[in-house]
Amino acid sequence: MRAFALTLLISLVLGSGLPAKAENNATKIANKINKSPADIIVIAHRGCHNPIPSLKLAGTAPENSLETLERCVALGVDVMETDVRRTKDGYLVMIHDDSIDRTTNGQGKVSALTLDQIRQFRLRADEGGEKAPLTDAQVPTLEEMLLRGQGRIIFNLDVKDAIYAEVVATVIRLGVADRVLVKNVAGAGSPPLSGIEPYRQVPFVPILASADRAGSDLVAVARHQGQADRLPVAYEAPYMDFRYLPDLAAEAKRQGVRLWVNSLFDGFIAGLGSDEMATRDPDGVWGRMIGAGVSMIQTDYPDALIAYLRHRQVGAVKR
């Protein structure tokens, strides 16, 4: 199976396309998210840009690129998180920052450049920066990303500009409205977002915002968001204290909604640990998250998280 995945990855990166009888993995993943609450959903932050030892891929790929998508599909990631912005001439493109400076060999604000101007430059490897080597890849459009991944993976679209209606319209036009997750920030004063336009047209994830760093009011925010006539798929937790995590997870469970937590950077749960710590002590970071009721984890190390989840599953069977 590993050899097949690697062969598939290489062929796709070279542009040969999917095999004729490729399975619709996106349907399986959507069913897993919606109907199997005990399963942990693996979310790759900006795609699978880090090395993937299990596929014998020692190099990196540019974040938010089509190559990171191919790597995620080959690895078996459930959800690829990717960022959307709008160019000067109205194209929706996959890039995190408001400028192209960090991730390409060009300079300038995305909103001040046309798509053709952005396409003159090449993406830098991994998370970019001046010292990161150049690749042959270009910044993809939202349409290119969605069509390449159609039927193969779920996308989490992190919309960086005030372009939600345009993003949702593109998703609907391409017929993949049930194969994406769209998210936006929801605080105590926000209406229940999953019940209003354009969010009600797609699977929606409120990013809960707390009035304090600890997150003492997050249960109340989630309870208010749960009053919509169309429930969200999940609640994404902000930076918060671990002491409030079990109660937030319990509220999400009461509503029949998943809880999403990030182990990115220094880790979003204070005192719990980061991705780097999780690769050394997965039980101490990812295991404690899962034990507290988290069922969606976003990471820059999806390969390590998938390996850990398989190890847990094997251990549970042996017991």
Walkthrough of the structure:
It is globular, with a radius of gyration of 19 Å. The chain starts with a helix and ends with a helix. It has helices at residues 2-13, 25-35, 66-75, 115-118, 142-149, 164-173, 218-225, 245-255, 275-280, 282-292, 302-318; strands spanning 41-44, 79-86, 92-94, 154-159, 180-186, 204-208, 234-236, 240-241, 258-262, 269-270, 296-299. By secondary structure, it is α/β, with parallel strands linked by helices. Helix content is 34%, strand content 15%. Helix 1 packs antiparallel against helix 3 (66-75), helix 3 packs parallel to helix 5 and helix 7 runs parallel beside helix 8 (245-255).
SSE order and pairing:
Elements: H1 2-13, H2 25-35, E1 41-44, H3 66-75, E2 79-86, E3 92-94, H4 115-118, H5 142-149, E4 154-159, H6 164-173, E5 180-186, E6 204-208, H7 218-225, E7 234-236, E8 240-241, H8 245-255, E9 258-262, E10 269-270, H9 275-280, H10 282-292, E11 296-299, H11 302-318
Parallel strand pairs: 1-2, 1-11, 2-4, 4-5, 5-6, 7-9, 8-10, 9-11
Antiparallel strand pairs: 2-3
Name some characteristics of this structure:
two-stranded parallel ribbon, 34% helix, alpha/beta, 11 helices
